[in-house]
Every structure is written in structure tokens, then in C-alpha cells.
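Chapter review: from sequence to fold.
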Amino acid sequence: MTISSATPFRLAAACLVVLAACAGPRLPAGPIFLVDDQGDTVAIAAPARRIVSLIPSSTEILFALGAGDRVVGRTRWCDYPGEALAVPSLGDGLQPNTELIVAARPDLVVLYRSPQNTLAADRLRSLGVPAVLLRLDRLSDIARATALLGQATGLEARADSLTQRVRQEVASAARERANPPAVVVLVWDQPPMVIGSGSFLHELIHLAGARNVFGDLALASAPVSLEAIAARQPDFLLTTSDMPSYAGRPEWQAVGAVRHRRFLHLSGSEFARPTPRMGQAVARLARALDSALVP
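The C-alpha cell string follows.
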């Protein structure tokens, strides 16, 4: 068989095609158009390589996507995973210092959607820095934010896989009980402030097989009277300390759960914000309830 002089070149070209196919997903050729939770369309020239993430949840999602090395700025509250602590802190996530952000030379800034941050996003965009506003308050927000950040980084396939994994872990950890215990999440005691149905903690309680006694409040949190807490007769109070300071105050003895020291002690950042670790949070709360319900 005769091999022409052009054959080696054809073979080399074929090998290059195969190698390119094996190298992984191609990054989209810019620009990329992102629609944030404000409804704004934000364009980035190419997959983001320098990201300032000013929401603890978005920082965690980026690391879970394998894009942690692209995060060049965070808030002081971004403490998970541990590698995030090596990223320079740019302060708080609300009303951020735009000069510090610009100095980090980001090609994308992720901000929590709030009236204060809308002004910051407008300022950054006027300076040519793409900025998106994300709402991360409930478990359903995780999937939406993950999809947007996957698109922004060119890691859509990883984003899809992460979302599926989180859903499977939550479904596996979820618990149903014939008589769901009533739970109050007290976030402040003077004046009393409780968690309503607008918070991811409300969803965690339901998934763990319990009932949020203030689930009829549409807000994420709201002030209530001590009398209202006592009247709803919660079985447990969810707390982040072994024995909260209010437990010893006379007026709080009107609440049976306080009087009988029925506290669910849960600490950890997975209970501070909605994150890809929601399955772990549901499992921990379910186990705490199992232990507390043992006669």
C-alpha cells in the first residue's frame, strides 16, 4: 500500500482534533449574557477569571464548582470552605467599598440583592466592571445561583452536576414524622425575633420532619411578643448555644420549652445561610430531633 506524503499531515491533524475533544468542555466564545435576580442583563466578555464574591453562599458555590482559584475578593463572613479564608477580605457584603473592589481588578462582582447593593452595582457597571445581584435566601435560590455562576465561569456541566447532587442529598436526608414537633427559631431575644417562612431555615425545619410555629409569617424574620411565643407552645427552641442567656430570665419561664430546657443546639455555617451543604444541615437537624424526641 502506498502512503502519500500528505498522509502524515492528515494523521497529525486528526490527532489534534481528538486531543482537543478530550481536553474537556470548550469555554464559550464571549460575550456571555447573565440575567441576575434584579432582572438586569449583564455582559461579560469571556468566562470570569477574577471574581469578587460578596455573598458567603456564592463564595461557597464557586468553590464547590472548582472555581475557588478565581475568587479574588470576599466578605469577612465568607468562611467556608477553609481555603476561602486565604482570599483577601473586602469587608461587609452590604454597601461595599467600590474602590476596594475595583482595586482587585475583577471581571465579575457578585452582590447580594438589596437596595443598598443596587447602588453599588450601578456604580461598578458605570466603571466598566460587570456586577450581578443575587438573592440567596431560600433553598430554591441555590439552584438558580449555581446555574448563573456556572454560566459565568463556563462551568455549566459542573453546575448541573452540583445542583443534582444537592437535591439528592436533601431528598435522602429528609424526614417525615407522624406528629411533627413544633419548633421556634429565635434569632434575637430583646425584643424577640423569630424565623418566618421566607427563610431557608423554615424549609430546613420542614425537611427534618418538624414544624415552624411561626411559618405563617411570610418574612424571613419578624419581631413577635414573648406572649405570642408562649401561646404557640413550641416543643423546642432552636439555638446556637448550649444554654442561651435568656433561659434564666424570669419572664421567659412562661415559655414551656424554656422552662423545661428543651433546646436544640445546632451551630455551624450551614445553618447561617443556604449553601450546597443543605443536605448535611437537614441530616444534622433530623438527628438532633431524633435524640430530643427519645422518651
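Two observations follow directly from the output. The first helix runs from residue 7 to 22. The first strand starts at residue 32 and ends at 35.
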